[in-house]
Amino acid sequence: MHLFSYWRAFVPQGGYRGFYSRNTVPLNLKVVNDIHKRGGTILGTSRGGHDTTKIVNSIEDRGINQVYIIGGDGTQKGAAAIFEEVKRRRLKVSVVGIPKTIDNDIAVIDRSFGFDTAVEEAQRAINAAHTEAESVHNGIGLVKLMGRYSGYIAMYATLASRDVDLCLIPEVPFHLEGEGGLYEFVDKRLRENGHMVIVVAEGAGQELMETSTQARDASGNQLLRDIGLWLSQKLKDHYSKTKNESLNLKYIDPTYMIRAIPSNASDNVYCTLLAQSGLHGAMAGYTGFTIGPVNGRHAFIPISRVTERPNRVNIADRMWARLLSSTNQPAFINADKINNKEPKEEKQVLVLNKLSDIFTNLDSNSSNGSLWSMDGAATDSTGKANVNTTKENESSQ
Ligand SMILES: Nc1ncnc2c1ncn2[C@@H]1O[C@H](COP(=O)(O)OP(=O)(O)O)[C@@H](O)[C@H]1O
Ligand SMILES: O=P(O)(O)OC[C@H]1O[C@](O)(COP(=O)(O)O)[C@@H](O)[C@@H]1O
After folding, report:
1. Of 61, 73, 103, 253, catalytic
2. 115, 102 in Cβ contact below 8 A?
3. Separation of 147 CA from ligand 2 center, angstroms?
4. ipTM of this complex prediction, to 2 decimal places
5. Whether pTM exceeds 0.90
6. What angle do CA 201, 203, 205 make, to 5 degrees?
7. Strand arrangement of the beta sheet that strand 289-294 belongs to
8. Out of 3.40.50.12780, 3.30.110.70, 3.40.228.10, 3.40.50.460, which CATH number does the structure's domain 116-260+330-360 have?
9. What is the pLDDT of residues 232-269, one digit of tens each?
């Protein structure tokens, strides 16, 4: 059976606006045949435009009974709002979140679709930065990578490359001057090696820029200043003030080039699993869940769980410690202090939402729900899951 031949997708304005635009396209096998080989999206995308009432009106008017919503942290929040409204109206509609963002900022799951590809593609920029930097005296290759609030791409690209001397992420505020500061470290590396590579996530150091802005995009995300340009200028100024030599700094911003490429093989396989699992969940009558791997097992996760908090690099965790020992960069802050601030997550047993439950017992059905493992290994005989929802993927590596 070719399920796709019955399906239509909302376009062309893209994103949530697409729900209440008039146009749709059929998603048959011919249309989707080679989309995994292309970057971008055939559905279109947009910031803002989430109007829960209009969206659910459209779902209701068109008689849609399964909704698959693809995107990052903000998109999952939008999906949660749609699910709540669908539930309030008692509609027989499954709402399924598909975690897609290169930033990897979706909580609970091991990684989001696109992240692996972004880390791999970032290697090309880092390699270029390294080649340029080591070819000249006092060479610095500075690479900016995406990551508005989460520094995962920068962290993993640094760990994968091993050519990076300094990695700056939004989760670690850094300082330029004085003992343990960035200037001191850069001076030392250039003195010792004659060149260095810096990777900076786009959300890092925003608080340092005098011109920092409170402006927001249509989705409510803070509009960021270009930390790469700012840091380039600061380093050049520092060098010209304190040394009698010139600094050869090459700034590379590959951010949109990275986001625009087709997904790699590993992400393609992941995508297949997301598609199959999401469909199985909806067909089994579950709703209000996001699909994704948790500690290596594909699970249905109540959307409300993945939207409770964003997934950010835990700098008290082993992975960041590994990065620090690999680059030998300054820690900038005392990890112990951060450690005490991080709330520890506990094992949870919750109940997953089923469409049938919503109709039979709406009031007693918690909207929190549970994780439900696709292979059943993490569930008990009652179908309830007992999965540690702490995102501890790092600790097992
Ligand atoms: N709290 C929220 N409630 C409803 N919709 C939201 C919420 N946060 C974001 N959205 C919507 O989700 C969509 C995507 O959010 P955005 O932050 O731009 O991207 P991402 O999904 O990659 O995080 C936008 O249309 C935005 O309006
Ligand atoms: O300029 P735009 O299109 O708003 O995109 C920039 C933002 O996209 C992000 O990469 C997130 O993109 P995705 O959620 O599509 O992966 C952020 O890191 C970045 O701030």
Report:
1. 103
2. yes
3. 8
4. 0.96
5. no
6. 95
7. 66-71, 94-99, 289-294, 297-302, 372-373
8. 3.40.50.460
9. 999 999 998 888 778 999 999 999 999 999 999 999 99
